[in-house]
Amino acid sequence: MSHKSNSLKQLALQKFKKNFWGVFSFYFIIFIGLVSVFAYAFAPDSSQYANQMHLAIHSKKPGFKVSMLTIPSQLETNQSGFDKLFFGKKNADSEIPISVFKIENDMLTYKEYASDGLEGVEKTMRITEFPNNNPETFIKEKTFLFGTDKYGRDLLSRVLVGARISFFIGFVAVFISLVVGIFMGSIAGYFGGKVDALIMWVINVTWSIPTLLLVIAITLALGKGFWQVFIAVGLTMWVEVARVVRGQIISAKEMQYVTAARALGFNNYRIITKHILPNIMAPVIVISAANFAAAILIESGLSFLGIGAQPPMASWGAMIKDHYNYIILGKPYLAIIPGLCIMSLVMAFMLIGNALRDALDVKG
């Protein structure tokens, strides 16, 4: 007969598995993570940052179709398959939306696409400019499932690539906040006295500054960019972790197992890392899940203000900033789609945080 272990970890795991929304959120976050990592493999526009612009077809509705003529470039782009998969294709080819075309007398004649009933410009090219003298293979019908943005870029591709920033900022920011917060909280809670007073003063000063203003100040000091935002958000979220860790250690250091560890001659570093921290990580895990959601919202707000990820990098917050005025112009989906993406990812982290809180509650 197999023996079931009733360890706290297994009991917590069993409780978590019974929470439908927690399990659903977990798999949803895994799905978004895979999409973020392999965004360029899923995106219809696999160019870097999905930044292929077609101003002639800007702000088109979801499901819009058009014939696209690709004019091959003579420039060679030496790029490895790994680089293409994770960082996008360096696309030197030109893409032109066209309405009609014909081939006769070794010439390709096409008419550029024009909306609102306008007549497009008619142009000609020699078929010798195309490999194998076969231009028809470079004309394909392209479908924009989510439509196009105000620059004529594929909105679906921008959403997929933009998921990277919103998803990974959660991991980087929470990692930074855990490293700084656990270190500061552990020292303050374990040693107490003047050390505790000094660290609590730093925590209270940092806490008193509005998060968004502090992030803006750090971002301006470090410069605008991708990693600067990650670091800035992480450095503003450590105070919550530090306060929780400090409070837990103040309670735990009076327990008998800590007294026994001191009696055995273990040093302070080992007592904190090997004995106390493993026993107080439950509330830290819960607050980390909430910090994931907070980091995503902060980054979206920074991108909306224009000091987050910089163009042409795709970001959900920047997409809302670029298209929020289209809500009153009859094309609200340009802002609603990235807004729903932010909402769903934040909701997933909040639900998994609630599920972890219930699962790790020893009184339950």
TrEMBL record:
Q: Where in the cell is it found?
A: Cell membrane
Q: Which keywords does this chain's UniProt record carry?
A: Cell membrane, Membrane, Transmembrane, Transmembrane helix, Transport
Q: Which CDD domains match?
A: TM_PBP2
Query: How the protein sits in the membrane?
Result: Multi-pass membrane protein
InterPro entries per the UniProt record, alphabetical = BP-dependent_transpt_permease, MetI-like, MetI-like_sf, OppC_N
Q: List the Gene3D superfamilies hit by this protein, alphabetically.
A: MetI-like
Q: What highest taxon heads this organism's lineage?
A: Bacteria
Question: Can you tell me where the transmembrane regions are?
Answer: 20-43, 165-191, 198-220, 226-245, 276-298, 333-356
Record domain ABC transmembrane type-1: where = 163-353
GO biological process entries: transmembrane transport
A GO CC term assigned to this protein in UniProt:
plasma membrane
Give the UniProt family note: Belongs to the binding-protein-dependent transport system permease family.
**Name of the protein this chain belongs to:** Peptide/nickel transport system permease protein
